Recover the amino acids of this structure.
């Protein structure tokens, strides 16, 4: 989903294991006839794990509603495009859950409705959320690259009590260096002696570039994860929609495993950054 929820179904272990079983099982069934029985069992296990995640998502509506309510209309988001995409993504995520619940209840014979329509609707909402996430990541990468390409801010020269100081207009300007020089009168020596650099007074300011590169890497990983899930979402739509129904089992498992591992990696990185933050 477009939003990361710390709920029971949000744990990546079940998802990663399920898709991994589907990947290995699909390969064994199609490529290794002698191991087809093992592959069939792995595919059955993958199906049960997927069903487990569907049941666990029955309890995610409240958490998703709290997240959507907290974000609201994105008043704190300065970028208008990101704000609009995020609002639409939250709306798609919020509607996804009840649609999936109805589809699950129909399959379980709790509700007497056509489950196929509700599964199609929930998958469409999931795909829409992923598509919006892809658009957001592409936009963020573009903006961050433009930010990195901006030239360093011009330096302003200050003379104060014998100190000549070159300082950038902004303290976080990428690649800028703050230098302090001792100013002596022309009569005290030659031209080379007019400026004497103080040892240890150069302070490189590169925080913005480092943060921008880290943000670009994070957005690229999110983009790849969303694209992998989007490919599977289209596959699960009714036949006739793009490549719907054309993926073999192992390819679905491969894309799902890739998406899950990328999400796990990002979660680990986010945890490390949170621990490093004072």
């Amino acid at each position: 989903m477009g939003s990361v929820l710390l709920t029971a179904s949000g744990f990546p272990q079940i998802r990663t294991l399920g898709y991994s079983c589907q990947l290995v099982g699909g390969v064994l069934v199609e490529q290794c006839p002698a191991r087809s029985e093992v592959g069939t069992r792995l595919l059955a296990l993958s199906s049960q794990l997927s069903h487990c995640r569907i049941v666990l998502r029955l309890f995610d509506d409240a958490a998703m509603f709290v997240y959507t309510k907290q974000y609201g209309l994105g008043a704190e988001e300065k970028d208008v495009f990101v704000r609009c995409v995020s609002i639409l993504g939250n709306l798609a995520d919020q509607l996804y859950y009840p649609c999936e619940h109805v589809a699950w209840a129909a399959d379980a014979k709790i509700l007497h409705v056509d489950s196929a329509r509700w599964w199609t609707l929930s998958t469409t909402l999931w795909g829409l959320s992923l598509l919006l996430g892809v658009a957001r990541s592409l936009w963020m990468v573009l903006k961050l690259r433009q930010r990195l390409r901006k030239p360093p801010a011009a330096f302003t020269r200050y003379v104060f009590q014998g100190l000549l100081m070159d300082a950038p207009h902004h303290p976080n300007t990428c690649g800028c260096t703050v230098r302090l020089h001792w100013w002596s009168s022309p009569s005290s020596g030659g031209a080379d002696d007019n400026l004497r650099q103080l040892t240890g007074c150069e302070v490189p300011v590169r925080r913005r570039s480092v943060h921008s590169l880290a943000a670009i890497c994070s957005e690229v990983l999110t983009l790849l994860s969303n694209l992998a899930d989007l490919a599977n979402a289209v596959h699960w739509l009714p036949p006739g929609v793009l490549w719907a129904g054309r993926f073999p089992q192992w390819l679905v498992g491969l894309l799902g495993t890739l998406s899950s591992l990328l999400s796990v990696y990002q979660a680990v990185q986010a945890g490390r950054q949170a621990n490093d933050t004072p």
The helical segments are 12-31, 36-56, 61-71, 80-107, 115-149, 207-235, 249-276.
